[in-house]
Amino acid sequence: MARYLSATMEGTGGTIKESVEDFLVEEIPLYLPCGEGEHLYVEVEKTGLTTFDLIQKMASALNVRSRDVGYAGLKDARATTRQRLSFQGVSPEDIKTLDLPGIRILSWEYHRNKLRLGHLAGNRFTIRIRAVKQGARDLAEDILHVLKTVGVPNRFGQQRYGSLGNSHLIGSALLRQDYAEACRQVIGDPQEISNERWREAAERYRAADLQGTLSALPARFRDERAMLNLLLKGKSHREAALSLPRNRLRLYLSAYQSHLFDRLVEMRLDTLD
């Protein structure tokens, strides 16, 4: 359980993210598209989708490869978020015809280069907190005064570590070149999985039943199924693990970096100033 700098102060109470409209994230671009070039920058609003879901749906609709789609950062799934994607070889006419659930096209403009991870100045958050206690505004202002004076221990938090909270463990295994452990963590720990079929697949994998794992794993786990098929064909754990999409492998390594950063924040919390 993470410690908080304001732990000794009374909190506001309340709940967040009761609905996707309660959590709005707007990407602040590092630069604006110049109006010319071969890359079409498309600003979109998505609801209830991860950034990877967004990319996959738009790439499929536009008949382009997902890996060729540029993006500057990842955004929450349980939220309403606005961000830019870049597409090469796509015209505004193609964009205008899109009608995808949970996705709204806001604007588009050409630019000379592909959008890359980190090409953003930051994110702007609008967060609605419901059912707060009486006097919550004054309490919030007191806490914000402390944070403004002392500093904000800005951990990455649970979101960075994936639905099972183990993305950093996969990144660590990849960095150590322990590819068998990386594959094991990708399939997941049965004790952390609530979905019955997924949990059964994880149990079968830990029992070295690769065919049973593949049979039990839900169809939506395309990357994991491709990894298992390579293992069934006699490929090494290294080949299987590194067959995962590049952006996913980068995300695992980034999660391990985040884990190290969060550990340092925790170590420095008592002397933060």
Your description of this structure?
By secondary structure, this protein is α+β, with helices and mostly antiparallel strands. It contains ten helices and six strands. The protein has helices spanning 51-62, 92-96, 136-150, 167-175, 179-187, 196-206, 210-216, 222-232, 237-241, 246-268; strands spanning 23-29, 39-47, 70-71, 80-88, 103-111, 120-127. Strands 1, 2, 3, 4, 5 and 6 form a six-stranded mixed sheet that branches. A hairpin with an 8-residue loop joins β3 and β4 (80-88). α7 packs antiparallel against α8 (222-232). The radius of gyration is 21 Å and the shape is globular. The mean pLDDT is 94.
How would the blueprint of this fold be written?
Layout: E1 23-29, E2 39-47, H1 51-62, E3 70-71, E4 80-88, H2 92-96, E5 103-111, E6 120-127, H3 136-150, H4 167-175, H5 179-187, H6 196-206, H7 210-216, H8 222-232, H9 237-241, H10 246-268
Parallel strand pairs: 1-4
Antiparallel strand pairs: 1-6, 2-4, 2-5, 3-4
